[in-house]
Fold these 2 entries.
Entry 1:
Amino acid sequence: MNPLDVPPDPAVPFQPRSGQRGTGFLTEPFQLGVTPSATVGPYLAIGLTWADGVWAAAEGTPEGFWIRGRVVDGAGAVVPDAMVETWQADPDGGFPSPDDPRGAATYPGFRGFARAQTSTGEFAIFTLKPGRLPDGEGGVQAPHIDVSVFARGLLDRVVTRIYFADEADANAEDAVLTTVPEDRRDTLLATPAADGYRFDIDLQGDRETVFFAV
Amino acid sequence: MTGTTSGSRLHLPRYLREDESLRTPVGYAGYKSTGLRAPLRTPVDLPQRLTEITGPVLGEDRVTAQDADLTWRNGGEAVGQRILVFGRVLDSDGRPVPDALVEVWQANASGRYRHVVDNWPAPLDPHFDGLGRVVTDSLGRYEFLTIKPGAYPWGNHHNAWRPAHIHFSLFGRAFPQRLVTQMYFPGDPLFGQDPIYNAIPDAARHRAVSQFSLERTQDNWALAYQWDIVLRGTGQTPFETDDDGDVA
């Protein structure tokens, strides 16, 4: 007998334990309490390793390149137990996601998502340059990649964005990048390297990467 | 599903942020590893645009049937108290999150992880690797069979022991819903001295603790623990259309 074959009992109604109704006024929208985050801890490799993790674009995709970088702590030491995840548009500015109000896009070989650990001292993901995107309010965003960093010592993920140093014109028009203090903007720029780009992430220090609240 | 644009305008949902008083901070003084790792500057607010309101579709092809049963590996049964862990994944508007990838990992019954960094003197179990994966069904339900993980010492402070816990990683539909967290067991006597548990604001701590379920406990087989997981929602109730489909 496989115990997982036993179906949940439909006679038992779901009762969210975490439910709350704010001030108690019935006019207030019902909201459940969001589950709090916790650190991935030092053993994330057990649960979060994917054989195909690094391929935001399939191996061999034309125009594909690597983004490599280190995650560095406040003492300048390389963090060897972090995980970096990336999510981005394809070169035409589409997303393989049904939540895109313009419709889900399919670009050959493109997943848009990658995850890589830093156990060798740096992370590496293989991807394509994202296209420019409407910001929804009449402007156009510069090519960018959303990044989450998870590690022992971080009780929640930290979020940043990769922009590209060789997209100066687009970057100058980007509403997010231009709100970042000018002297910190370069922490968000991936710089051209032999087989793609380099993007180091400084968790602390003089060159602390700009992190975002999303 | 196509949305609408008027000119270059897009009507995008906005994922609500839990109040700061109910969110785990990135850094916490009692947790030593945060000292050199948690960023010190205030994060910059990121408006939610197309990249933020979308997310990868990661489904069934990442999961095998064996991934939902952690108690059997290498041709044998893991040692420990057999438990069924189950629940629902919802967004904060109460809407189920179907087809969500749930990845779990945990220590074995003696509190040892199968990982090169874990070398405390408790035995490894040849029939336990501590890795599970499931995808939620159409009602957002998940469940997996495992053994109850042991507590273990970790050197954060004198006589520091992690309460028994299972690590969870979840993808919702969109980037703001991504969640990595830990599930605890009710009434653990180690809660009081654990900074990772206590970093969660007091009012939200109970959300990280599973509940024993006699209803789902299986006679002559396994104890059951229920843990419902809530990801960020957009503030629209499930009874409203969540789409601005009418152009006119």
Note: The helical segments of chain A are 44-48, 168-172.
Entry 2:
Amino acid sequence: MSEILNYILVAFSPINLLFALIGTVIGITVGALPGFTPTMGIAVLIPLTYTMEPASALVFLGAIYCGSMFGGSISAILINTPGTSAAAATAMDGHAMTQKGKAHGALVEASVASFWGGIISVLALIFLAPPLARFAFQFGPQERFMMALFGLTIIASLSTKDVIKGLMMGCVGLVVACIGMDPMLGSPRFTFKNTYLMGGITMIPTVIGLFSVSQIFSTLKDPVKLADKDMIAQFREAKISWKDLVRYPVTYLRSAVIGIVVGIIPGTGGDVASYVSHNVGRAFSKEEDFGHGAREGVACCEAANNAVTGGTLIPTLTLGVPGNATTAVMLSALTIHGLTPGYGLFTTERAVTYPFICALFLANLLMLIIGMFGAKHFAKVTLTPKNILSAFVLALSVMGTYAVRGNARDVLVMLIFGVVGYVLKLYKYNVVPIVLGLILGPIAEQGLSQALLLNGNSLSTTLLSMLTRPICITLLVLMIASIVTPYIMDARKRKKAASVKAE
Amino acid sequence: MKKVVALILAVALFLSFAACGSKTAETTAPAETKTETTQKEPYKFSGTVTVTVPFNAGSNTDNQIRFIQPYLEKHLGANIIVVNAGGASGVIGTTDFLSQKADGTNILFSLPTPTVYKPAGGDTQYTLDDLIPVAQTSSSPFYLAVSANNQEITDGKGLLEYIKNNPGKFTYANAGNGGIAHLAFAAFLNGEGLDALSVPFTGGTADCYTAVMGGHVMGHAVSEPDLVGRTDYRVLVNLGTKSTTEGFTDIPTLEELGYPGYATDTFAGFYYMKGVDPEIVAAFDAAVAATLSDPEFQAKAAEANFGYAYLNSADFTYVCQNTTKNIIPVLKSLAN
């Protein structure tokens, strides 16, 4: 016990506290800026840590990682421009809340849910890391295929009003995801001999185009309106109560578990976690407008994508297998500071690892404080007249898209998707399934192709092999539930409405 | 009043974004062109040199250049700006690099995938001849490893026997078909008429490792840096040149197992585009040589376990050309 206390003291030493604070602020900023990824932030700042003590260096980098996951939600909620692809799902409910004048509530909820997601995942990292890391091994090609399919069933719940339109958009996403290098053959496909297309259509330009640029086009036709008195009054009244800290305890826990599991599996990250958690949350939520401005929707996504931080660190620290690109960069930082990932980190090198984990706690706490008290000020962005805000958002979108890898053609892709998104929204198509197809298509394709390859290219053997795997069966059950529940709920709602009318 | 505050806040927000953005804008601005030197003195660099890394920030290649950067700047006498231009296994960044001015201020730092392997496969709009290999900075072999829990296959000999006796049964993970890790083993199998199943994982090392440890595939064709510190793997065969790295010297090469002529290594190095003055090429090469033999650099490299292996322009060119020559027949027969 005294040993643990000692580690906490190291983590909370003034210098480490300072690094944690600076790291969290940098993380939130990097996360909030579209196109500036946490991976980039950490990669660029690693050289700064060369001269630091290993514990301080890791505290600093860990704080950036935690902060960035939350930061992404700020721009998603306020200007519908997800700062990171993990925050794309948050924009669904979060931005809808902003449009309803509840930006402050959405931001507070995002920071609270992020806090709980982060804290729960750090607890998992401390107490369950070794056994959970082994769990990741169970995810073979078949399991990944099923998981991606499960993710795609979210389309059903997103489009209860018009399934055909939802499926069409999902297919568009899957087709777009096919552009680039064939994952099995390693040769180009649908690239028309174009070098740029060999790299595929990437997430950030597509998401920024579909979500943010298309909306800028929509606002062009709206009359210019200044913030009215009611809105300003709302900000004056915006208060934080103790109740806000634990509004949805069950949701936080459930979403955090989803985030941790998704984080542990290499190749999947915050984007998958938040969509899956949002979908699962819908089945449990009592809020009528879930998906269209429900506070609980924001909680689902943010708790899940922040839980991914602890989740991805589990295989990184115990096995030296990074769960995503960001932790891959963290891993190289570990080695530069002379630490070898593996069980040793939890035994012989505890003196560095445990302060690091304690500092993640601290980073989450700082994030909560900054998020809750900053919400009021961040939310003022919505008071800016729409025409001025749109100009800023467009400039920011162009800059962010370009910054990802310094390619001007990404900006062109973003603008094309902006126009596409605008036209689709005019005809009442939901663009979220396109993003889902783009995220999950490659995971599903690779999983299925590998499973086929390992089963002698026989479809029947492959399908049978799935039915003998417990994780696959669990996912199959979840999948069916996910397709059916929205319809049952819809029918129930209609019945209720009908009976109310009859009375 | 509130309106004004909101407007000011919005402006401040934008300015702070712009301030952050300017950093990247700066890195991509064209470096100033230098005046031609007419004297016979060795070429001198000045101002800035832009190094294009055709992979993302934080990737293995990016980490290598960022490690070398401060020392290379000293010996070059110029500032270095690293520009990450990832995508399509480095082909996008390399294609863009080739469209830049051949005045010596733009140089490429890359692994062989986009410079040697992809052009050899005919997937690119350029060939190796469009590039001038300037200097190699590191080189390391590939290995074939299985899980330490594998009871059946315990050493290199056992592995080859297993593959011979069970055609097509041995499955091995690699980071992508047509990539070096895949070709390192496939070239050998192909040449000896052996049959094993390649299972590509585009997620890279982490994906492959999970698949091996979970028993979904049997082996893993993997690079040396990715094996350092891995205790739950049994490394069976070195698919390249004998390693001098501690812990890897005892692993038998294919040649030692009786199959010479298949060694495949991965190497990182600098490339200019065709048309750069040979004097500039020689000057950059000399600066790289001086950097890698700098005691200060060597001490730091030893501390951080950073591997390096210098080759001059001529030798590096030979390595690239020889690799291309050897790999073309393999790619052809794999395509059939």
Note: The mean pLDDT of chain B is 83.
